[in-house]
Each structure stands twice: as structure tokens, then as C-alpha cells.
Design a protein that fits this description.
heterodimer; A: 139 residues; four-stranded parallel beta sheet; B: alpha/beta; Sulfate adenylyltransferase; Rossmann fold; 2 domains; six-stranded mixed beta sheet; five-stranded parallel beta sheet; 14 strands; 17% strand
């Protein structure tokens, strides 16, 4: 899978739980994810700014990883053969419809895996009952 | 694990019961657009996920991308436009409008959030999607009957089970997927047909069944052209043959509510993608699949699959030659497996079969099982074919 940087544009100091939540969602689908918090730049001994963060994220993503991070400005990362970049406003991502459509676009572009089930487990039980009633399955 | 749906997940834009009632209440006094027969079939299939990843009728960007590149603008492979044409009697609409979708009788079948209204060059569409703009092609004739203005946007479709034909056989993609899993099938082959079952079909289906876990018999029951055997007759033939000649646990029959487009090779790809959404890993592609007249080469519908990356397509086309009974082999065969001349082969065209039935002559048992021939004869007597 091609690498991806998801850059969540946000005010400095805002809650980074949203990054973790998105990371967990993609991980549960079977994606290789790295959530890159602001502090990670410092921990790497790099200068704490968006440019340094962008370089680190691009390097990670170019190995086929989905990297989720945030920053106040747009990242200076050039998409290429090995990686894509998607930018989304934090305020937009908190809206369910925007979040769903953002994830769907990433799925269709082959950048993140789709959810692992094709039919929701709760619905599957009802369907099994229907199939029995129609004679497709024995009781 | 079954093959994933096209684009990764099944779309679900189908409503019934209270939810459907709410949609009707929201749109019934507003702007209502009229669905023709094909669009009504398409609406159902977008709604139930058969056309995943489509969530509605195509906008201009998807339409152009499909015609020029055979891909949706969002990326996945897609071979034919799925569009809604504005009708003369329809009210004017604008992007952002929430409209109802009704049939010519006024029954509401869904709604659409209008995203795009665009002009289409229907001649160019015919050439790119059907490979011809000849008026004698039924798909061209259909296109030329349209206004040339398309309206695109996400839809919701209303399921009205009480009015559906073949209700017991109408399984949505999520239902066939659950069925395959419950039966322990990891692979399934789909057989698409708009003809009654003859020995040649049976032979091909059973060859395919040797390499997969199960067979999905998926007769097309959407709109077809005049002269095709009616769906209810074809279904009776299948019901009859399934009684005695197929292992019950390895076959499932369900209807495919799509309209025929007669687009030959591109429709073969379209049919394959839709069957992938139903959970099938393999799809039988015969000679001149979805063809009409002499518009397509004998093997065009098979060769088109060679241009796609197998991962992108996500379903394996099983390409079959026409099959026949060979009196020297003493069984069914194809040109790939039979060494004998045509004089030993029992093969009848659909036209010839219809002529025989009209004269009260039953097709030979080497061509059609007697049980099927009787059903066809009875239908011919009643004027059903």
C-alpha cells in the first residue's frame, strides 16, 4: 500500500486525542499506522516546527505507513510515487459526515483499508434468519 | 474469507418501513423526477449495494472519467455510466435540491440530493460505451431517446417488497455474502444469463463448479429487449433443473435485477464487478457476452479483461467457448476439448430453438433436457416466447 500522511490542521495546543482515535480506527482495519504527536519531533532531537515534522512524517510514510499528525500550517510535503498527503481541518474531522466521507475517499484511493466486515455482525444474524425462512439454509 | 466488495465496502442506501415512510413524506409534495425502467433498476442496485462503490447517479466528473478512462474519478475500475436523465415533464432542479424519484405511475422509489446537472454528448457516449452509434443497436436507440441532460447525486432507494417479482429469489449482495459464508463457501462463481438453461449452460456451470465452492445462478430479470425469453419462463426452467441435476448445497439461485445495456465487452466487465459485490470470486464469461447482433467480436467480451490488473478487477473471469453435444465424443464438449468435425455437434441457435417451438417441435435432448423443453413448449403455446 502507498504511504500516506494525514495532516490534521489544528490550532497549536489543541487536543491530540483526535489523532489517536483516527489511528486506532485505521489500525483496526488492518492498516499500518504511526501517530506522530508534536512531542515526537522533540524526542527525535529535531527542531520543533511544522517543517521538521513534515520531513519526519514523509520519511515514515514513504515506507508504506499511514502517518497521522497535526500542524497549524499546511505541510511542505510533495506527494509522489511512494506517498500521498491529505489535509483536513480538525473542526471538519469532528463532524461524522465529513469524517466518513474523508475515510471513504481514502479507501477508494487505496490509501487505507476498508472496514474488515462486509455485513455488520448484528445484521448478519437477521439475514441468516431470513435465509432460513426462504429455504436457502436449513434450520 | 470472501472477496471484498468493489471499492472496499458495500454501500447501503436502501430503506424500508418507517425510514422509507419518512423519505416519502419529505419529498412527496416537492420536486419529483421521473425514473424510466432502466433508471429504476439502477436505483435499486445502487441502493442495495450491488453497484458499490456508487452511492448515487453519476456526476459529470465520474461520467467523463468512466467514458474516457474506465475508472471512477475516485479511483476504482468502472466500465459503464450509471446516470439519471432529466425528462421533459420533470420540474427544473438545481444543485443542492433534495428531490423525489418516482416511476411513470407516480410511485415514489427514492430520493436524490442533486449535486450536478450536466449536458452529455449522447453520440460520444454511445461510441465510447457501446462502441457504435448505429441506430439498430438497442443501447444506441435507448440513448437517443434521452434528453441529453443528466442529473447526478447521492440517492436513497425505497424497498417495496410487496410489489417485487421473484420476491423469494431477491437477495441483496449482503444477503448472498452471508449465505456463502453460512454454507462455508470461500469461492463462488456467478453465472449471468438472459436465456433459458440449455445443456451447454449446464456443462459450463458444472465445469466451473469443479474449481470453486459454489455456484450463484444469477438470471437477469431487469429490462431486456423484445424477443428475449421472459424472465418468469427462464426462472421456471431453472427451478425445474435444480430439482434433479445440481447438488442442492452447492448452488444458490437469486435474481439479478439489472437492465440489459447490450454493451458487450464493457457490460461483461460491469457484470463481473457487480457479481464481485455479491461475494463471487469468479464470473463466467461466454462468447459474445452481453452482445447483440453482430456489433461485437466473438471474443471481445473475454479479451477486455486482459487489460486490467487482476487485483484491480478483484474477480476472476472464467472464459468459456460455446459448448455442444458431440455424438462422437458421446458427451458435452467445446472446441477446446473436442477433436471432431461440426457434423457431429448438436448446436442450435436461440432463433432456431424459437422457430422449432413455434412449429411444435421439441428441441433434441442433447440440446435441452426434456423437462426444460416442455416448459419452453408450454410458454410458446401461450405466446410467452
Amino acid at each position: 500500500m502507498k504511504g500516506l500522511v494525514i495532516w490534521i490542521r489544528t490550532e497549536e495546543g489543541s487536543d491530540e486525542i483526535i489523532l489517536d482515535r483516527l489511528g486506532t480506527e485505521i489500525e483496526e482495519r488492518g492498516g499500518r499506522v504511526e501517530v506522530f504527536h508534536s512531542k515526537a519531533v522533540e524526542n527525535l532531537g529535531m527542531e520543533k516546527n511544522d517543517k521538521a515534522k513534515a520531513i519526519a512524517c514523509a520519511m515514515l510514510a514513504s515506507h508504506g505507513v499511514v502517518v497521522i499528525t497535526s500542524g497549524a500550517d499546511s505541510p511542505a510535503i510533495e506527494p509522489g510515487e511512494k506517498l500521498e498527503v491529505r489535509i483536513i481541518e480538525e473542526s471538519d474531522l469532528s463532524r461524522t459526515d465529513v469524517h466518513d466521507s474523508f475515510m471513504r475517499d481514502l479507501e477508494l484511493a487505496g490509501l487505507v483499508p476498508a472496514p474488515r466486515y462486509d455485513v455488520h455482525p448484528d445484521e448478519e444474524k437477521e439475514i441468516l434468519k431470513k435465509l432460513q425462512n426462504l429455504g436457502y439454509l436449513d434450520d | 474469507m470472501l472477496v471484498p466488495p468493489h471499492g472496499g465496502r458495500l454501500t447501503d442506501r436502501q430503506c424500508e418501513g418507517l425510514e422509507a415512510g419518512k423519505i416519502i413524506d419529505q419529498v412527496k409534495n416537492g420536486k419529483l423526477l421521473t425514473l424510466n425502467a432502466r433508471e429504476k433498476n439502477d436505483l435499486e442496485m445502487i441502493g442495495n449495494g450491488a453497484m458499490s462503490p456508487l452511492e448515487g447517479f453519476m456526476t459529470g466528473s465520474d461520467y467523463d472519467s468512466v467514458l474516457d478512462l474506465m475508472h471512477l474519478s475516485t479511483g476504482p475500475l468502472w466500465s459503464l455510466p450509471v446516470v439519471f436523465a432529466s425528462k421533459e415533464e420533470d420540474p427544473d432542479v438545481s444543485p443542492g435540491d433534495h428531490v423525489g424519484l418516482k416511476d411513470i405511475d407516480g410511485t415514489i422509489w427514492g430520493d436524490m440530493l442533486v449535486e450536478d446537472i450536466f449536458r452529455a454528448d449522447l453520440i460520444a457516449e454511445a461510441e465510447k460505451s457501446l462502441g457504435t452509434n448505429d441506430d439498430s443497436h438497442p443501447g444506441v436507440m435507448y440513448l437517443k431517446s434521452l434528453s441529453g441532460e443528466y442529473i447526478g447525486g447521492k440517492i436513497r432507494s425505497i424497498r417495496r417488497r410487496e410489489t417485487e417479482s421473484f420476491g423469494n429469489y431477491r437477495l441483496d449482495p449482503k444477503e448472498t455474502r452471508v449465505l456463502f459464508r453460512a454454507r462455508g463457501w470461500k469461492t463462488a462463481v456467478a453465472f449471468q444469463t438472459r436465456n433459458p438453461i440449455h445443456r451447454a449452460h449446464e456443462y459450463i456451470q458444472k465445469c466451473a463448479m469443479e474449481i470453486v465452492d459454489g455456484l450463484l445462478l444469477h438470471p437477469l430479470v431487469g429490462e431486456t429487449q423484445e424477443g428475449d425469453i421472459p424472465a418468469d419462463v427462464r426462472m421456471r426452467c431453472y427451478e425445474e433443473i435444480l430439482k434433479d441435476y445440481y447438488p442442492r448445497t452447492r448452488v444458490a439461485m437469486s435474481v439479478f435485477p439489472a437492465a440489459m445495456r447490450y454493451a458487450g465487452p464493457k457490460e461483461a466487465v460491469f457484470h463481473a464487478i457487480l457479481r464481485k459485490n455479491y461475494g463471487c470470486s469468479h464470473f463466467i464469461v461466454g462468447r459474445d457476452h452481453a452482445g447483440v447482433g453482430n456489433f461485437y467480436g466473438t471474443y471481445d467480451a473475454q479479451m477486455i479483461f486482459d487489460q486490467f490488473d487482476p487485483d484491480e478487477l478483484g474477480i476472476v473471469p472464467l472464459k468459456f467457448e460455446h459448448a455442444f453435444f458431440c455424438s462422437k465424443c458421446g458427451g458435452m464438449a467445446t472446441p477446446k476439448t473436442c477433436a471432431h468435425d461440426n457434423e457431429y455437434h448438436v448446436f442450435l441457435s436461440g432463433k432456431k430453438v424459437r422457430a422449432m417451438l413455434a412449429e411444435g417441435i421439441l428441441p433434441p435432448p442433447e440440446f435441452t433436457r426434456p423437462e426444460i423443453a416442455s416448459i419452453l413448449m408450454e410458454a410458446a403455446r401461450k405466446g410467452d416466447n
